[in-house]
Design goal:
By secondary structure, this protein is an all-alpha fold. Helices cover about 75% and strands about 0% of the residues. The chain is built from 14 helices and no strands.
C-alpha cells in the first residue's frame, strides 16, 4: 500500500487493525447473552455497551502499542511475513503513534470508569490490570511464552465474567461459574489466532529471542495445539449449553477446514489462515451466544 498519506485517517484505521476487533467483542457478546438469559426484559443495556466500547478501545490500544514497540525493538524487520504494520511502513510516525497510545489508554479508562457503578470497586483493579497487561504483552510477556495465557485471560475469562458481573452481579453463582467456563471457551478459540501468528513467524521469533509456544515446543506442537484449541473451545460451550451446543457444529467444521489449510500452507501464505481464523472466532462468538441464551 503505497498510496497512504502519513498520519492520515486511513493510516490510523489500518493501524487499529479492524479485523482483530471482533476478537475483542465476542467475549463481551457471550457474557451479555448469559446475562440476557437471566434478566430477560430487565436486561441493562448500558453496562453492556460500556463493556463493548472498553473492549474495542483496549484492543486498538494494544494494537498501537504492539505496532510502536515491535518497530522500536526491531521485531518488525524486512523479513516480516505477517500483515504490514503502520510504523514499520512509515504510515504513522513514531511520535504520533506514541500520542495515539496515550489517547486510547485515556479513552479506555474514561469509558471503563462508569462500570464502577455497576460492578463495584473491583472494576478499578480489573481495568488497571487490563491496561498494564496491554503494554506488558508486547514489552515483555510475549517473549517468555505467556502470550497464550494472556489471550485466555483477557480475550476470554475476564471479559465474559465481568460483562456478566456488571449486568447481573453475583446473584446466581451457578451462572457466574458458567460465565467462567464460557470465558475459557472463547479464550481458547481466540488463542487460535495467536497460534497461527506464532506458527508463521517461528523462524523470525527465534532470531528476535521471542520464546512463543511454537518456538519452545516446535511446529508440530503448534499444529496440534491449533486443532485442539478449537475442539476444547466447543467442549467448554457444551459443558454449559448442553444439547444446544450442537449449534456450534458449523464453527467446528470451519475450524477443521482451516486447520487443514494450516498444514498445507507456508510462510506468508499463512496470512490466509489468519483471516480464516478471525472469521471462525466471529462465528464461534455468535453461535455460542445463541446457544447460551437458548439452553
Amino acid at each position: 500500500m503505497t498510496d497512504i498519506q502519513q498520519n492520515s485517517i486511513k493510516a490510523w484505521v489500518l493501524a487499529a487493525r479492524p479485523k482483530t476487533l471482533s476478537g475483542a467483542v465476542m467475549p463481551v457478546l457471550i457474557g451479555g447473552a448469559l446475562a440476557l438469559r437471566q434478566t430477560g426484559a430487565d436486561f441493562n443495556v448500558t453496562p453492556f455497551v460500556l463493556c463493548v466500547l472498553f473492549a474495542l478501545i483496549m484492543q486498538i490500544d494494544a494494537n498501537f502499542i504492539n505496532d510502536y514497540y515491535d518497530f522500536k525493538k526491531g521485531t518488525d524487520r524486512a523479513d516480516r511475513l505477517g500483515p504490514e504494520r503502520a510504523c514499520a511502513q512509515g504510515w504513522i510516525t513514531m511520535p504520533c503513534m506514541l500520542k495515539g497510545i496515550i489517547l486510547t489508554t485515556m479513552l479506555a479508562c474514561a469509558v471503563g470508569a462508569p462500570l464502577i457503578y455497576y460492578g463495584g470497586w473491583w472494576m478499578v483493579a480489573v481495568g488497571a490490570i487490563c491496561v498494564a497487561c496491554c503494554a506488558l504483552y508486547t514489552l515483555a510477556l510475549s517473549y517468555y511464552g505467556l502470550g497464550d495465557v494472556l489471550v485466555l485471560l483477557f480475550f476470554g475469562i475476564v471479559p465474559v465474567v465481568f460483562t456478566y458481573w456488571c449486568i447481573v452481579g453475583v446473584e446466581n453463582l451457578q451462572l457466574l461459574c458458567d460465565a467462567l467456563i464460557l470465558g475459557v471457551g472463547i479464550g481458547l478459540a481466540t488463542d487460535c489466532l495467536l497460534m497461527v501468528n506464532n506458527y508463521r513467524d517461528v523462524n523470525q521469533d527465534i532470531i528476535s529471542g521471542k520464546r512463543t509456544f511454537v518456538v519452545i515446543f516446535g511446529a508440530r506442537a503448534g499444529e496440534l495445539a491449533y486443532l485442539w484449541l478449537g475442539i476444547l473451545a466447543v467442549a467448554a460451550v457444551a459443558a454449559v449449553a448442553k444439547l444446544w451446543a450442537l449449534l456450534m457444529l458449523p464453527y467446528l467444521l470451519l475450524h477443521l477446514l482451516t486447520y487443514r489449510n494450516l498444514l498445507r500452507l507456508n510462510g506468508a501464505e499463512l496470512n490466509k489462515v489468519l483471516g480464516q481464523t478471525a472469521r471462525n472466532i466471529l462465528v464461534f462468538g455468535i453461535l455460542a451466544s445463541v446457544a447460551v441464551y437458548m439452553y
